[in-house]
Amino acid sequence: MNTPKMPPPSGQPDEPGLARMLWLFVFGFVALTFLLTQQPSAPGATATVSYSEVKTLIRNGDVREVTLEENAIVALLHDQRTDGVLRVRAITPVQPDPTLLPQLEEMGVTVTAQAPRAPSTLIWLLPWILIIAFYFWLSRRMIGGMGGGLGGGLGGMGDFLSGRSSKPAKLTSKVTFADVAGQDEAKREVSELVEFLRDPDRFQRVGATVPHGVLLMGPPGTGKTLLARALAGEADVPFFSTSGSEFVEMFVGVGAGRVRKMFEAARKHAPAIIFIDELDSIGRTRGTGLGGGHDEREQTLNQILAELDGFSAREAVVVLAATNRPDVLDPALLRPGRFDRHVTLSLPDKDARRAILNVHIKGLPLHRDVDLDQVAAGTPGFSGADLKNLLNEAAITTARRRAGDITQADLDEARDKVMMGTVRTLAIQPDERHRLAIHEAGHTAAAFYNPSGDPIYKVTIIPRGRSLGSTHMLPAHDRHTLSEAYLRAQLVTLLAGRAAEKLLLGSVSSGADDDIRRATALARSMVARWGMDPDIGPVDLRDSEDHPFLGQQISKPRSYSDETATRVDQAVIALLQDAEAKAVALIEDHRDQITRLVTRLEAEETLDLTAIRQCLDPDSKIKSFTRNRT
Ligand code: ATP
Q1: From the CB of 148, is ligand 1 less than 6 Å away?
Q2: Is 440 noted as a catalytic residue in this protein?
Q3: DSSP state of 39
Q4: Distance (Å, rounded) from C-alpha 156 to C-alpha 145?
Q5: Is the pLDDT of residue 626 over 90?
Q6: pLDDT higher than threshold 90 for residue 375
Q7: In CATH, which superfamily holds the domain spanning 430-616?
Q8: How remote is the CA of residue 477 from the centroid of ligand 1, in Å?
Q9: What confidence tens digit (pLDDT) does each residue in 433-464 have?
Q10: pLDDT at res. 474
């Protein structure tokens, strides 16, 4: 999760609270033990002296009375300064002193003996009392945790001590559909439920069955939680929120108990909404866990299924669950009557990104030069959460500059930071820096001179995140299909950095590691997925599949012969060699311009489009590029 969500349900054991309680118990134990083991002392001042000094005082006749304790002697003498009584105390030797009693008798000193103190029964009982108290406290906290999703449970000592309410709290949402930018399809699907939640009787009277379970699917940060909150806000009904991951690592039975409590409370407050985030962490296909099919996760999942089945058509409770791994969900969850309505939230396109920026820009001071359309265009692949983060980073950069307004440069800096990480301070040797400038200039030139690719936007040799330098393209629009010409241009651009090193320095380096990896993956997709090799043709020969939302590759068993695999490999290699040859030719043809670009890049570190154009096309002969930009 990227941004703060609903406040955490109270009543759940939180780490700092637990640590605080443990310390309280330890402190209490030590303090009580100390108090109970202290000898009660008589009123008045007592001076501690050595045993021989006490003996001398007795011998001199200064002592009137002594008290013999188990391992000490307390003598009372006359204080000549104050004319009062002075108490002196000395520890007696381990070896008994046979001369002491005769001497006391001889000097006429009154002797009182004190019986050794029997250790208080409380001392023995104390650890047990504390252990039992701790056990009860912990177990009450666990029960309290059961109602956590409701914003409180039965209330344990933890709740009491931390001052939290033990009453289940209903969360209300002020978010509306207007706060969810883009995602029109998803909003349309969910908005049907608003009517139902606002006036369930109308639907019940005519016997209409409204879906109880809605599964929100989509990549992280696309607004699934936001949409659930917006539904609660629009319908003006209470909202009970929990996350699947909260059920993991609980004692067996606790998760199921919490689910039961949450559904109970929602029914009590109906019409209401239950939102379960990260459903995949509990809703994975059963029977795959290590717990032999009876682990906590499965019990929780079974309870959710039972609760969903238990809804009658009359109950106005809607359960929304969010996941970005629908592929791993237990099929039982998706059956009719359960999470049978599926709403997909996708990554925003350019217009939606612009709309999301509009939502989050409210209240931020923007400089006149800011072009939000350009920000939207330059952030393909960003989720709503990423865009919000970008604006926040830009505001932080502005504050750090001690400026009043967020400028376009702040937004560009924030975009690079969100995309690639922060600028790194890295000691780069001059010859390495020269090679880096040549490498980036190669990419830049290939992107600049190739009208089929994305237009260039800026180039830098400032290390950022994991990369040492970078060349930035700014697609004029979101691409939904990729033409072969565009893909071939991409291959040339990717390999042009290495080609420039080879031609201008006479050798290559490991700096092209990521370029080669990406170029190979792209070439493989062109051959094995998109049928772009004329000899192999349109055959699906992939050995992995894209994850629908997470952009990861999931391997799948190979379903073609070794011979075909060899042909795929050869076609991939041929594509890459062809792209490399084109990159080398391009660098060769523009050697002077690229050398100019390298010099300026080394001097200025970051160059924008104007500077790049001044180096690569001082006479502005390349019209196709300009066409592409506008
Ligand atoms: P995850 O899968 O990581 O739980 P999610 O899909 O639930 O993520 P949210 O938590 O709803 O995403 O989104 C995070 C934040 O991003 C929201 O609080 C909101 O500020 C912003 N956001 C995401 N999508 C949108 C959108 N469409 N319009 C406005 N803001 C959005």
Answers
A1: no
A2: yes
A3: P
A4: 8
A5: no
A6: no
A7: Peptidase M41 (1.20.58.760)
A8: 23
A9: 899 999 999 999 999 998 777 888 889 888 77
A10: 73
Q: 69, 189, 393, 440: which one is catalytic?
A: 440
281 lines ligand 1 (CB under 6 A): no
Q: Provide the pLDDT for residue 422.
A: 64
2-12: average pLDDT? 37
CA–CA separation, 144 vs 583, rounded Å? 66
Q: Per-residue pLDDT averaged across 273-298, rounded?
A: 68
Query: Counting atoms of ligand 1 from 1, which one is nearest the CA of 352?
Result: 27
Q: How far is the CA of 241 from the centre of ligand 1 (A)?
A: 15
Mutation pick for ligand 1 pocket among 222, 351, 360, 389 (CB with most ligand atoms within 8 Å): 222
Phi, psi (rounded to 5 degrees) for 548: -60, -35
Domain locations in the chain? 15-35+120-161, 46-113, 163-344, 350-420, 430-616
pLDDT in tens, 317-349: 888 888 888 777 888 888 877 887 888 888 888
The letter for the amino acid at 201 is D
Q: How far is the CA of 548 from the centre of ligand 1 (A)?
A: 18
Stated length of the chain? 630
Average pLDDT over the chain reads: 78
Residue 520, pLDDT score: 95
Q: What is the pLDDT of residue 546?
A: 66
Residue listed under structure tokens 């931390």: 162
**Among 15-19, 57-61, 283-287, the range of highest mean pLDDT:** 57-61
pLDDT of 4: 34
Taking the C-alpha atoms of residue 211 and residue 197, their distance in angstroms, rounded to an integer, is 11
Q: What angle do CA 102, 108, 114 make, to 5 degrees?
A: 70
**CA 460 – CA 474 distance, rounded (Å):** 15
Cα(224)–Cα(215) distance, integer angstroms: 10
CA distance 308 to 320: 11
Is CATH 3.90.78.10 the classification given to domain 46-113? no
Element (H, E) at 60: none
What kind of architecture, by CATH, is found in domain 163-344?
3-Layer(aba) Sandwich (3.40)
Buried b (16+ CB within 10 A) or exposed e, 114-149: eeeeeeeeeeeebeeeeeeeeeebeebbbbbbbbbb
Instruction: Name residues whose C-beta falls within 8 Å of residue 577's C-beta, 6 or more positions apart in sequence.
Output: none
Cα–Cα distance measured from residue 449 to residue 451, given in angstroms and rounded to the nearest whole number: 6
Of 277, 407, 343, give the one whose Cα is nearest residue 2.
277
Confidence (pTM): 0.61
Phi-psi region of 221 (alpha: psi -120 to 50; beta: other; left: phi over 0): left
What pLDDT band is residue 41 in, cutting at 50, 70 and 90?
low
pLDDT digits (tens, 9 = 90+) for 380-435: 778 889 899 999 989 998 988 888 888 888 888 888 888 776 666 666 778 888 99
Predicted pLDDT at 150:
33
Residue 1 beta carbon below 6 angstroms from any ligand 1 atom: yes
Q: Which tokens go with 68?
A: 């013999």
Q: Which CATH fold topology does 350-420 show?
A: Helicase, Ruva Protein; domain 3 (1.10.8)
Greatest CA separation for the chain: 126
Task: Give φ, ψ of 338 to 5 degrees.
Answer: -110, -125
